[in-house]
Structures are given as structure tokens and as C-alpha cells.
Predict the 3D structure of the following.
Amino acid sequence: MYVYDEYDQKIVDERVSQFREQTNRFLSGELANDEFLPLRLQNGLYVQRHAPMLRIAVPYGLMSSRQITKLADIADQYDKGYAHISTRQNVQLNWPNLEQVPDILGELASVQMHAIQTSGNCIRNTTTDQFAGVVPNEIEDPRPWCEIIRQWSTFHPEFAFLPRKFKIAVNANTEHDRAAIRFHDIGLQIVKNDQGDVGFQVYVGGGLGRTPLVAELIHEFMPWQHLLTYLDAILRVYNLNGRRDNKYKARIKILVKAMGVEAFRAKVDAEWEHLKDSASTLTEAEIDRVKKHFVAPAYESLSDESAELNDFLGMNPGFRHWLEHNVEEHKVPGYAAVTLSLKKLGIPPGDITSDQMRAVAQLADQFSFGELRNSHQQNIILADVKKSDLPALWQQLSELGFATANINTLTDMICCPGGDYCALANAKSIPIAEAIQSKFDDLDYLYDLGDLDLNISGCMNACGHHHIGNIGVLGVDKKGEEFYQVSLGGDSGLDAAVGKILGPSFQADEMPQVIEKIINVFVEQRQEEELFIDTVRRIGLAPFKERVYAKAA
């Protein structure tokens, strides 16, 4: 993983010192709230319903055991002993005191972490596939490209105050898009041309929120050398032309839709003419410099078959289920990538205690070269585990509550903090998630249903990605009461699609039964091993509407 050089460390240390002074000025009354607002936002600090919320950057989801141990210490010393994994692979603290935030940032800086540009109208942290670099079917490892974009975007002087927040995601997998690139302001798909040269398909204008849109392809093959200059051109067009009079219409997706993709592409190309082959053009030397930070760990030469694994399989049905659902194929023989489920019944999705963080750090050291990853699905990954170690790992994860074999099932749901924490939320999210999890607390039944994404957001900002869940749940306010709107057919992957609203919203206590009725229609209508999303696409929404809104006899 990337390691700071002296310049990186100096930049972060100076930002800590700067924000400490700004915070002190605000607390003493020298800075008004509207003056402090953009300063705190670019240091990851929100003011939520009950307390500030600090969003800590985890570049492309990658952390070391040392870093997550530090997060555990911070959670104990400055918060309530737990943290939350966000849908952008970051870590959030829900209860810090404003006065202590500079101290927290100082602690983070000591382990090469920060909260810079995790909020505010700037270029946010770049994200990618949680299995980047370790699974088959990749053009190449996307993490060095994410790091190049991170370095380019951090403190970019021209784009520090954009019309609205801006998010970039990179995917290199040919069979999966686990980074949801077509729902980002810019989505980059690594590809190769007929000559074997690496480049990027460039998508622009995706996003969720009040106006969910699938990004448009504006360049079929951008040679890697020109990546940053082309990104500069896109951002410049957006910065000059994006609306600033209405925050709900300020995202680049609105600009692309209003202009039309052809006109937008023409503007970008015209701007790029001034930037192409400039000093920001990438060289092989620069790429090699960054790639040196992402060398493969010291893998052993192993057989892909493990006697220890096979023996254990025969004795433990629970282990078999976990192996099928929580373990991913690795490109190196004898290794596997393991997802630690943070979706145990009774625990808010994505929450992890300080004790669990320390335990995960120890597991990373013991089983996965001291590294771990956060996923968009609010889980944690150990990416380089020997297959022979899987039984021992599973036993330890079971004791920690991380071995729930439900990855990619209905109960592996994405859920924002919602009205329990967020000042923007119209409704609670976590109780809805728990009620649905309780209703479907039967793993054998979940396995029969197959892969199914259920996402929950407490408001239209869509932090829970409800638009792109196969089943999406949105909290809405009706005259001061909490209701929930359901959509079907969303897909964040290669067949990107926004879900369609089923109909009128439901009260909270109705939601488990509503989801049950939807699932029952699927079970009755599916063909052979057809997945939920494919059934919805084949039969449409009408059968689901008829069942869900049927009046009792």
C-alpha cells in the first residue's frame, strides 16, 4: 500500500495545525458559523443530529493493521468505542467533541491518515473494487491509478470550491463492477485496445440523490498518458458551467443532462486541446514510481488444493456456507480473499467496535500481511489469506461475530445511519434494517433466494444507495411522520440501472411484510435459478404491485 513520503506527511501535519487554529478561532467567536462551515467540511467534519460526525479518509478502502488499531484507540478516547464503515469505503465517528477534533486529526496524521476532502464541494476520495489487485479478470491493478488520482486531486487549487461535491471511481475488472462507476461524477473503466495498450473508458454524469442518473460514456479509449489532463478538462468545464444557484441542481450529472452528452463532450474536448501534452501528462517513470508501492506481498508457492481445508469442510456445514458466500477466488494459487460480515443481526450495518477493530488488526497481521480493506457494502476484507488458514480464520471470526455467511444475500444490506444520527434524514434507517433482518433470519432460505441487494436510505441524498439496490428503501416524511418508499430493479454493476418506484409509501411497521410479499412474488415467478434482478427485468413491476397493494379480503 502507499506510504507517505516527507512531503505527504508535511502537508497533512500542516493541515492539522491549520485546522486546530481555525477551530480555536471558531470556539472563541472570531469565526462565524458560515465562515467555519467550508473549513470544517474540507476536514471531514459534519454537524449531525446529536453531535459532530467526523469522516476519515480511507484511500480506495485500503488500511494497515497499524491504522485500524489507531482508529480503535481514537474511538475509545474520543468517541463511544465504535466506528462506522461508510459506502465510500471511509470510516465515520458519530460522537466526537468539536474541541477534540484537531487532536483526533493529529492522532490520524501519526499513522498516515487524515480527513481531508471527505466532505465539502471538492473532489472526494477515489474508490475502487474492494478486491482490486487480488482477483482474476482484471486488466491490471487499479489501485496505482487511484493513488495517482488521489495525489492529483488533493489540494487541487483550481477545484477546491466546486459547485458541488465530486466523486471518482475506477474499475479494472472485466466481469464485475463492484465500484459502481456509472453512478459517480466520473467513472473510469480500465481497458486495453487492439494493440494491447492500457487506457480508460470515461463515463461522466452519474449520481444518486434527488435525481439519480446513469453516467454517459464520453470517451471510448483515453490513453493512460492523458488521464490527468482529460480529468482536468472535465472538471474545468464543470467548474465553469455547473450551476451554483441551486445545490440540488449543481452536480455535474445535471449539467451533462441539460447540455446533452454530445455538447458536453465537445466542450471537454475543446478544453482538452489547451491541456493535452502539458506538464500533467503522465510518464512511465511516474507510473512506475506509484506502482512500486503496490508490489505483491511475499506469497508462498502453494497448491490450490488444501488438505486442511478439505478435511475441515467435511466436519463443518457452517464453514462450507461461509466458504461459499464470504470467500472470493484469488489470482494466486493457494490464497483467497475473505469478507468479514458487519451485518450480524442486532448490530447496525457497518458498525464495528474498538475491540473488534483491534481483533481485526491482529487477524490481518496473522493471516493477510497486515492489510485490510473496506467495501462499499460496509464490510471488511482480508484479501490475502492462505486457503489452509481458512478454518482457523473462520473459527476466530465466529467468536468475534464476523462469520455470518450472508455476503450478497438479502440481509447483507447497505444502510445509512439515518434519522438516528443524521440531521438531513427524513426517517430512521437502522430499525428498518434490523426488522427486515429479523424477518429473514434463516440463512438456508436466503441461500435459496440467491444474490440480492437491498439498500436503505433515510433521505433523498441516498447515502444508503437505495436507487441502485435490487430492492431500494427510502425514508420519506409525510406531515411529520416517517414513511418508506420502495423501488425495484436497481443495479450498480455492469448492467447499471436506477430502480423504479413501486407505488405509495408504507409505515415502518409494515416494511418487513412488504419485503416478504415482494420476495414471495419472486419465488413464485422465478425460472430455475434466476436471480431476483433478472426476474424483475423479465416480469416488470406489475405483479409486485398487485401483491403488495392488494386489499385484505
About this structure: The chain has 18 helices and 21 strands. The chain has four domains: 6-109, 134-293, 307-400, 414-548. The radius of gyration is 23 Å. Residues 414-548 form a domain with the Sulfite Reductase Hemoprotein; domain 1 fold (CATH 3.30.413.10).
